[in-house]
Amino acid sequence: MAESQAPEVPEAAELVDQGIHEYEAGRIAPAMRRFEQALRLYQRVNEVTGMADCLGNLGNCHYRLGQMEQAIDYGEDALTLRRGLGDWPGVGLNLSNLGCYYMVLGQTHRAAEYFEQALGLAGEWEDRRGRAMRLNNLGNAYSALGELARALECFQEALALQRALGDRPGEAVHLANLANALVDDGRAAEAVAPARESVKICRAHHLQASHSYTALALACLFSGDLASARVAAESARQYDEPNNNHTALVVLGVVALRQGDRSAAQSAFAAAQEQARLMRARDARNVDALDAWGLAASGLALTCPKPDLGETQFVAEAVTAFQAARAINRDAGVVQRLLRLLAELEAKDDEGVLAGVREVAGGGALSA
Question: What pTM was computed for the model?
Answer without folding.
Answer: 0.92
